[in-house]
Amino acid sequence: MSWIRRATVDDAAQIARIHLLGYTVGAAGLLPSDYLATLDAAELETDWRDRLGLPHTGTRTLVAVANRDVHGDTDADGAGAADGADVGSASASDGASGTGRVGGSAGRGERVVGFASYVRSFDPGTPYDGPNEYAEMTLLYVDPDHWAHGIGGLLHDAVVAGMRDEGYHTARLWALPGNARALGFYRRRGWSDDHLRRVEPDHGFELTYQRYRLPLSD
């Protein structure tokens, strides 16, 4: 069984491990191999400790956890990713395993098998203290050992529920156009291309992102 809870600083190492796999496994063929070879798990862990240790950043990070004796099928296909800050790389499969329960703290014997983050999204000129119109799903990654077990769907649904609870009207995400499996995952869940593109020079090479949107209100 898998379930969802809020991430804590104690999850930083496991989140960093999955984040790294999201690049090296999920982004293989989408990003230059020489760039992937420079990624360092220790640096990612430090970054995640900083992110999770800072109060009131506005970013919400959820983790999918399972009992440590639960292992997925390493031949299974699919891990979810949306990444506006870094790279939307892996993909995600449908599935119904686990539950949608959101807990509040880490427990002994838990293994983090995926994570997702979201934050308020701003358009240029939008006041910081304006209404909560848009939220952005910035990250969604699943441990490759747990692909095709419904983990991506659990995380996605928990993020969307959190956005709705906070009063947002529209969800957004940025993804790489070449990431067909990830885009298929989001399209099946009602996301649509809003035809906005951005090109960013990341780490010495350019990446083109396309933005997708999901209405949160009826």
Core attributes:
5 helices, 29% strand, globular, Aminopeptidase, 218 residues, alpha+beta, 8 strands
Describe this structure in words.
With 218 residues, the protein is of the alpha+beta class. Helices cover 26% and strands 29% of the residues. It has five helices and eight strands, in the order βαααββββαβαββ. It has helices at residues 12-26, 33-36, 41-53, 151-165, 180-188, and strands at residues 2-6, 60-67, 102-103, 110-121, 134-142, 170-175, 192-202, 205-215. The chain has an eight-stranded mixed sheet with strand order 3-1-2-4-5-6-8-7. β7 and β8 (205-215) form a beta hairpin. α1 (12-26) crosses α3 (41-53). The protein starts with a strand and ends with a strand. Residues 72-81 and 83-101 have low confidence and may be disordered.
Distance, first to last CA:
31 Å
Placed side by side, the strands forming the largest sheet appear as 3-1-2-4-5-6-8-7
Give the proportion of residues in helices: 25-40%
Assembly state (oligomeric): single chain
- Mean pLDDT reading: 80
CATH fold-level label: Aminopeptidase
CATH class: Alpha Beta
Question: Rough shape?
Answer: globular
The number of helical segments is 5
Strand coverage percent: 25-35%
- Work out the radius of gyration: 16 Å
**Overall number of strands:** 8
For the biggest sheet, the summary is: 8 strands, mixed
Give the secondary structure arrangement, pairings included.
Blueprint: E1 2-6, H1 12-26, H2 33-36, H3 41-53, E2 60-67, E3 102-103, E4 110-121, E5 134-142, H4 151-165, E6 170-175, H5 180-188, E7 192-202, E8 205-215
Parallel strand pairs: 1-3, 5-6
Antiparallel strand pairs: 1-2, 2-4, 4-5, 6-8, 7-8
Helix pairs in contact: 1-3
